[in-house]
Specification:
Blueprint (H helix, E strand, L loop, with lengths): L11 E10 L2 E11 L4 E5 L6 H9 L6 E6 L2 E2 L10 E4 L11 H11 L4 H14 L15 H12 L6 E5 L7 H18 L2 E6 L2 H7 L2 E6 L2 E6 L1 H6 L4 H7 L2 E11 L3 E5 L5 E5 L9 E7 L4 E3 L9 E12 L3 E8 L5 E7 H7 L6 E6 L4 E3 L4
Parallel strand pairs: 3-8, 3-9, 6-7, 7-8
Antiparallel strand pairs: 1-2, 1-4, 4-5, 9-10, 11-12, 11-14, 12-13, 14-20, 15-19, 16-17, 16-19, 17-18
Helix pairs in contact: 2-3, 2-4, 3-4
Length: 370
């Protein structure tokens, strides 16, 4: 197989990294270690600092303070060309006057490599991304997905140890986005180099990443494997942003060794898995995944520790499941539950219905107290 991997390993470490723009912090004391050969996704809403962090790693922005280490070497002040990284931009940035093979070979041309040699290398890279049959096409003769493949081949030209991708799938239609997502993961595994991928799509990050870094307001909110971040959010922001979680709040009542009792707005008692510590906080947040909530028309048919009477506000069909938007009776707490399409039809659930929602304490996750 064609070798594109740099002799270095591609480990990235950010130490107390900061970036200020006119007194406003775009990146605020970020500490992060990305292992060599990992697929890391920086995930968060617009303006959270994820793209600025990527540009700092690439050298397209200069840090206000802190350090960037790549394979243990300080690169904070080095130019982009000396960092062992390559950047794939959101708009692909292909030269419109060059065909595919010359776009990919452009860096080699600047280094004085002969046309025959640089075209041979470029064709190998186009083959890697399954675009060898389009080598003579101009960028405007390619679809968005094809342009992305060419841009990816060009980014790999200099044998980077770290490939940086700034929302590479955002311009694609949903079907092509899923297809290219699989292609990126395949390439990363084959090449063995570190990918750092910026996205605001929770689905994209969970599908791709070995390591998910959730950012909010210029800081890191949580770092972990995709499954851990989804199943065990550390705080309210992560639980809400990552999707699939409902966040409830309760006033502390009592606790035993591994459970806390909380009282909700309607004097509803919740049993939540977790430890209160020696000095309990006045209030706690906890999350419950939407797919773990049981729904029934009659309370006695829900065999769960925690039970809420609520109204169905809306129902959204999602193919294999139906998402129910619910509101607890007597207050404005809204939450979601997922039920199978067959269950939804057999139970004849309609907006306006009063139903019971239930879950066990073992299906809850205690969030950092507030």
């Amino acid at each position: 197989m064609l070798s594109v991997k740099n002799k270095e390993n591609g480990q990235v470490e950010l130490i107390d990294l900061c970036k200020d723009f006119d007194g406003s912090k775009a990146v605020d004391h970020v500490n992060l270690k990305i292992d060599e050969g990992a697929y890391c996704c920086l995930l968060g809403p617009s303006g959270c600092g994820k793209s600025t962090t990527l540009r700092l790693i690439a050298g397209h922005e200069i840090a206000s303070s802190g350090q960037i280490l790549i394979d243990g070497k300080p690169t904070t002040t080095l130019p982009p060309s000396a960092r062992g990284t390559a950047m794939m931009f959101q708009n692909y940035a292909l030269f419109p006057h060059l065909n595919c093979i010359d776009n990919v070979a452009f860096a080699l041309k600047l280094r004085g490599v002969s046309k025959a040699d640089r075209h041979e290398r470029a064709l190998e890279l186009l083959s890697l991304v399954k675009m060898e049959g389009f080598s003579k096409r101009m960028p405007d003769q390619l679809s968005g997905g094809q342009q992305q493949r060419v841009a990816l081949a060009r980014a790999l030209q200099n044998q980077p140890s770290v490939l940086l991708l700034d929302e590479p799938l955002s311009a694609l239609d949903p079907f092509l986005r899923i297809q290219m997502r699989a292609e990126l993961r395949r390439l990363q595994r084959e090449l063995g180099i570190t990918f750092i991928h910026v996205t605001h799509s929770q689905e994209e990050a969970l599908a791709l990443a070995d390591q998910v870094v959730v950012m909010d307001k210029a800081r890191i909110s949580q770092v972990g494997g995709a499954r851990d971040v989804f199943r065990f959010p550390q705080n309210e922001f992560v639980a809400r942003f990552i999707g699939g979680h409902n966040v409830f709040t309760g006033q502390y009542s009592d606790h035993n060794e591994d459970q806390i009792s909380l009282v909700g707005a309607n004097n509803q008692v919740f049993r939540v898995q977790g430890q209160a510590g020696k000095t309990p906080y006045p209030h706690y947040n906890f999350s419950v995944r939407s797919d773990l909530i049981e729904i029934a028309h009659q309370a006695e048919t829900v065999n769960r520790e925690n039970l809420i009477n609520c109204e169905v506000i809306d129902a959204e069909f999602h193919g294999a499941y139906v998402k129910l938007n619910l509101q607890t009776l007597g207050e404005n707490t809204e939450f979601n539950a997922q039920v199978s399409d067959d269950f939804f039809l057999s139970e004849k659930i309609q907006p306006g219905d009063q139903v019971w929602a239930g879950w066990n304490s073992s299906q809850t996750w205690l969030l950092h107290p507030h």
